[in-house]
Automatic annotation (TrEMBL):
The keyword Signal applies. InterPro entries: DUF1501, TAT_signal, TAT_signal_bac_arc. This is DUF1501 domain-containing protein. Residues 1-36 form the signal peptide. Residues 457-466 have a biased composition (Low complexity). Residues 485-497 have a biased composition (Pro residues). NCBIfam families: TAT_signal_seq. PANTHER family: BLL7424 PROTEIN, DUF1501 DOMAIN-CONTAINING PROTEIN. Residues 457-506 are annotated as: Disordered. The keyword Signal applies. Keywords: Signal.
Length: 524
């Protein structure tokens, strides 16, 4: 029988554990000592949320596609040359590709010229088409296009199946975010933190949290006794609390520094600086992810030039931060084992709208960079911008390369993780494109065949469905060929009434579809 004192002690344990877990987030369950050396690869996934206009980041600079591009974007077209003209993309032998980068993407251009950047054109959701930000982002985060009931994200599954990862490695997965992103859903080993400075347990009075330089003699703070309170950790809550406390301790012991003077000062740059330091700290980091939002440019997108241009500033923010990130890794000798992937949920329409912006589209470039890339090359199947070619896609740049194909090559050739069937359930379209350095492994558990690309017009633009053919006028049946009476239907057992929560969810989904149809109608 427990005494009152024992019950009180257990109650305090539970309160402390729940407070710690709630403060630092659900993805904070790791422990152990730092590993000896960085002898492994790391993947950094950058998600541009909002639907980045890839056609003004990687744009045609000559030929017939240039003519179609200027006709479709009389106000938004980036100049082919001049002070604010596109930055030409040339191959390693100096020959032209016919494409250029936005003039603000000087950092990306330098990575390209150094052979550290490869671009996969017309990339995205090949088998599931949607103009909804929410659906498209979730499909990519989960790695299961068209199936949103998956309880885990693709990064969580990649980490769970990653060879040579052990419990003694303190930080194998990292999301630099204010909350756990969907691509790490289901992971109990990945850590989510906005910044190292804010990664602390701040419950209770500030002066009671822990012993500081100006604290009274012999003060023992609340945070200082958490480890002893969770010992021996017999319950699940105690064990979770102990892991959370260990995570706090590991991060607190790392020499995270302030942003270097030569780095850009945007929030995105600060997040990349956290990733860069975490890669160099011998903590076993395998997968990291972070977001850069603000790409939903329906109006006032801007182009390139003097004065204020929204899109120009976003490209500059992205390019400068990625350039500083890779320069830091190169200077510290870590770039040869880091791969950075940049993607968005979908691209924008080829033709600009009446508000000098662009609406939701389909295919988009996917950027792959780092010392592990066979760079300075364009990959994928570019179909061009001829309106007749794009007509089956309602004027969108089509998707010709499944984004999972690019990620699968990174998993196999760099991470040495062949478990594609577990990471991307149902995916069967993998063959290497040659974008990554390294040797191939036989995929494990991959679907037998590739899924059919979703290119049906009704799926691409539900608000603009083709007109159904008019039925022919029925003729009077002859006396010889008289219609037979319909058979009496066989009675079936009454179906159970759906649960009220399912009915509410169904009504919410119907409302969401009506709202999306409305916006597609007013912003085609």
């Amino acid at each position: 029988m427990k005494t009152i004192e024992h019950s009180r002690r257990d109650f305090l344990k539970g309160c402390a554990a729940a407070t710690a877990i709630g403060a630092v987030g659900p993805g904070l369950f790791f422990s152990g000592a730092a590993q000896a050396a960085n002898n492994h690869d790391t993947v950094v996934s950058v998600f541009l949320r909002g639907g980045m206009d890839g056609l003004n980041l990687v744009l045609p600079v000559n030929g017939q596609d240039r003519i179609h591009y200027e006709q479709a974007r009389p106000d938004l077209a980036i100049a082919a040359s001049g002070a604010y003209g596109a930055l030409p993309l040339t191959l390693g032998n100096g020959s032209a590709t016919g494409f250029g980068l936005h003039p603000s993407a000087t950092g990306l251009r330098d990575l390209w010229n150094d052979g550290m950047l490869g671009i996969v054109q017309c990339c995205g959701l090949l088998t599931s088409v949607t103009r909804s930000h929410f659906d498209a982002q979730l499909s990519i985060d989960l790695g299961t296009p068209g199936r949103q009931g998956t309880g885990t994200g693709w990064l969580a599954r990649a980490l769970d199946t990653q060879p040579d990862v052990t419990a003694s490695m303190p930080l194998t997965g990292l999301a630099v975010n204010s909350r756990q992103p969907a691509n790490f859903n289901g992971s109990t080993t990945a850590l989510t933190m906005g910044s190292p400075a804010d990664f602390a347990l701040n419950a209770g009075a500030w002066s009671w949290q822990k012993a500081r330089d100006n604290s009274p003699d012999d003060l023992v703070g609340i945070n200082d006794v958490l480890e002893s309170m969770w010992t021996p950790g017999k319950t699940g809550l105690e064990r979770s609390g102990a892991r959370a406390e260990s995570a706090l301790r590991v991060i607190a012991q790392q020499p995270y520094e302030n942003l270097p003077a030569d780095w850009p000062t945007s929030t995105f740059a600060r997040q990349l600086w956290t990733v860069a330091q975490s890669i160099q700290m011998n903590l076993g980091l395998r997968y990291a992810t972070l977001d850069l939002g603000g790409w939903d440019t329906h109006d006032g997108q801007g182009t390139a030039g003097s004065g204020y241009h929204y899109y120009q500033n976003k490209i500059d923010e992205l390019s400068q931060a990625l350039s500083a990130f890779h320069a830091t890794l190169a200077a510290s000798g870590h770039l040869s084992r880091v791969t950075t992937v940049v993607q968005s949920e979908f691209g924008r329409r080829v033709r600009e709208n009446a508000n000098r912006g662009t609406d939701h589209g389909y295919g988009n470039p996917m950027l792959v960079m780092g010392g592990t890339v066979n760079g300075r090359k364009l990959y994928g199947n570019w179909l061009g911008l001829d309106p007749q070619v794009l007509s089956p896609y309602y004027g969108d740049v089509p998707v010709t390369t499944d984004h999972r194909r690019v990620l699968s090559e990174i998993l196999i050739r760099r991470m040495r993780n062949p478990n594609l069937g577990a990471v991307f359930p149902g995916y069967g379209g993998y063959t290497p494109m040659g974008i990554m350095k390294g040797s191939d492994l036989t995929p494990v558990g991959m679907a037998a065949s590739a899924a059919t690309p979703a290119v049906a017009a009704s799926a691409i633009a539900p608000s603009r469905r083709p007109v159904a053919p008019r039925p022919s006028t029925p003729t009077r049946p002859s006396t010889v060929d008289r219609p037979r009476p319909a058979p009496t239907p066989t009675p079936t057992a009454p179906q159970p009434r759906p649960d009220w929560t399912q009915q509410v969810q169904r009504e919410i989904r119907q409302l969401q579809r009506r709202v999306e149809r409305f916006f597609r109608d007013v912003m085609p």
